[in-house]
Specification:
By secondary structure, this protein is α/β, with parallel strands linked by helices. It has 6 helices and 5 strands; from the N terminus they run E-H-H-H-E-H-E-H-E-E-H. The longest helix has 18 residues.
Length: 162
């Protein structure tokens, strides 16, 4: 299982590369394999060229992509993302959501996203709406709605039904 935090939870005293590789170092993996996996994931999230930068030298979106790479380092079957776009602007939110879609396509990831944002929920295949600790509604997105605006309208329509 991998976990992606809203606040990134990167270690500020080490580089982006070291933040990503740290779980493998702690697991005692061989250096060559650590380097290969870390490079692969940094390339996947589009930040290999920024690997030697410290978190304070990265934008919020870049920090979140480093956190995503770190969460993927063990190839988990399940990723849990707690408000992964909560600290990001709309453009960076779209970039992170597109990255999640690529993760699902390339790695077959199951991603559980906790969000208060209908625009984020519109990217999900399945939505469970919880209010005051109870499930109020559950539905699957319709495959025919590939356009994000159509998917958002579907989510908002479903929420209005409650």
């Amino acid at each position: 299982m991998g976990f992606i935090f809203q606040s990134f939870n990167l270690l500020h005293g080490i580089t982006a590369e070291d933040n990503v590789s740290l779980p493998l170092v702690l697991a005692g993996m061989k250096k060559k394999e650590i380097m290969e996996r870390t490079k692969q994931l940094l390339e996947f999230v589009g930040l290999y060229e920024r690997r030697k930068h410290f978190p304070s030298q990265l934008s919020g979106g870049q920090q979140q992509r480093i956190a995503i790479a770190r969460a993927l380092i063990h190839h988990p079957a399940l990723l849990i993302a707690d408000e992964p776009t909560g600290n990001l602007d709309s453009t960076t939110t779209d970039e992170v959501l597109q990255l999640f879609e690529r993760m699902r396509e390339n790695y077959g990831q199951t991603i559980l996203i906790v969000t208060h944002e209908p625009t984020v929920a519109a990217h999900a295949d399945r939505i469970i709406y919880i209010k005051d600790g109870s499930i109020v509604q559950e539905w699957r997105q319709h495959a025919q709605f590939k356009d994000p605006q159509q998917r958002l309208k579907c989510v908002l329509d479903q929420l209005a039904v409650k």
